[in-house]
Design a protein that fits this description.
With about 350 residues, the protein is α/β, with parallel strands linked by helices. Helices cover about 40% and strands about 15% of the residues. A seven-stranded mixed β-sheet has the order 6-5-4-7-10-13-14, sandwiched between helices. Strands 11-8-9-12 form a four-stranded mixed β-sheet, covered by helices on one side. Helix 4 packs antiparallel against helix 5. It comes from Sphaerochaeta globosa (strain ATCC BAA-1886 / DSM 22777 / Buddy) (Spirochaeta sp. (strain Buddy)). InterPro entries: IF-2B-related (IPR000649), IF-M1Pi (IPR005251), IF_2B-like_C (IPR042529), Initiation_fac_2B_a/b/d (IPR011559), M1Pi_N (IPR027363), NagB/RpiA_transferase-like (IPR037171).
């Protein structure tokens, strides 16, 4: 059984190549980006999205942009690196993988510059190597998340699984996070009926998750977000799996807006609720979810998201892109290291200190 997972990003290596997710599912258009403004715009406008993919795009973007220039000195290159890093960091405030990846590039940059014999070419080669390492590590982490998540299921039945937003191949460089167990299971003869919440206002569930699951050969049904309770009540859902853009030290998890409501419903109907994310998504400097900065986006995404106005022009619109699910609602967090059952601050700390299993 073969599973096709869409490839979301790569490099050539003088351009960053992204599948424009704003065009899906109607058109598969790859963008070839080689300027800082075009890469910033792609991240800001969700042409590339999903916490791991954002981090990878920013890392490759740093290399691509610096490779376009010839600097009079390493000092000038260092100043431009700092400016570019700050510019990319300002694109999306909630997804911690963006800042994690940029900081890794900073550390690698500084390491090379500590050598008095360093040349610009040495810096560029190191940045390309680091961004490629981030890319390849993400692929390995996605596969490991899938392996650990798959232990929650067996082959004795068809599992009804609900997901919210997109946390598959389009959001990473490989199998994804929340969708990784489903892809691996499908390859190995497990049976899933996936219910993909459409995920208002930008419909990442219906445009992206349903698109890639269908392309991968899995059984997927699109739901309006407000149908989740009914479908759970009807007994169609055995588990909920979502991704995360930032996880606080105590296990509170920020994910696409609407996720916390799904978690509350799952708790009411006694359905396990899982969060799948790599260890890089944890932000131990943020103690609780209430401290996570929630991105506020343009209200036009709500009332005029796809070319047809659905609200009056003179009415205010509130458009937070994420919400935070309390750790008390999470049955387990699945990472590349294993599972954190009923997460707490101490359990998270111990989990992240151990090696991959």
């Amino acid at each position: 059984m073969h599973t096709t997972i869409p490839v979301s990003l790569q490099h050539d290596p003088v351009k960053l190549i992204l599948l424009d997710q704003t065009r899906l599912p109607e058109e598969e258009l790859f963008l070839h980006l080689d300027s800082r403004d075009s890469i910033y715009e792609a991240i800001k406008k969700l042409r590339v999205r999903g916490a791991p993919a954002i981090g990878i795009a920013a890392a490759y973007g740093m290399y691509v942009c610096l490779a376009q220039q010839s600097y009079p000195s390493l000092t000038a290159m260092k100043l431009d690196f700092a400016e570019l890093k700050q510019y990319f960091a300002s694109s999306r405030p909630t997804a911690v993988n963006l800042f994690w990846a940029l900081q890794r590039m900073q550390i690698r940059f500084d390491t090379v510059l500590s050598n008095p014999q360093a040349r610009q070419q040495d810096v560029l080669l190191a940045l390309l190597d680091e961004s490629t390492a981030i890319f390849e590590e993400d692929q390995a982490m996605s596969k490991a998340i899938g392996e650990h998540g798959l232990t929650l299921f067996d082959k004795t039945k068809t599992w009804g699984v609900m997901t919210h937003c997109n946390a598959g191949g389009l959001a990473t460089s490989g199998y994804g996070t929340a969708l990784a167990p489903l892809y691996l299971g499908h390859e190995r003869g497990y049976h899933f009926s996936v219910y993909s919440n459409e995920t208002r206002p930008l419909l990442q569930g219906s445009r992206l998750t349903a698109y890639e699951l269908n392309k991968g050969g899995l059984d997927v049904t699109i739901l309006c977000d407000n149908m989740a309770s009914l479908v759970m009540k009807e007994g169609k859902i055995d588990a909920v799996i979502v991704g995360a853009d930032r996880i606080a030290a105590n296990g509170d998890a920020a994910n696409k807006i609407g996720t916390s409501g799904v978690a509350i419903l799952a708790k009411y109907y006694n359905i396990p609720f899982y969060v799948a994310a790599p260890s890089s998504t944890f932000d131990l400097k943020t103690a609780h979810g209430s401290d996570i900065v929630i991105e506020k986006r343009d209200g036009e995404e709500v009332v005029n998201g796809f070319g047809k106005r659905t609200g009056p022009k003179d009415v205010k619109v509130y458009n937070p892109a994420f919400d935070v699910t309390d750790a008390s609602l999470i049955t387990a967090i699945i990472t590349e290291k294993g599972r954190i059952e009923h997460p707490t601050t101490e359990k998270v700390r111990k989990h992240l200190e151990m090696g991959s299993v």
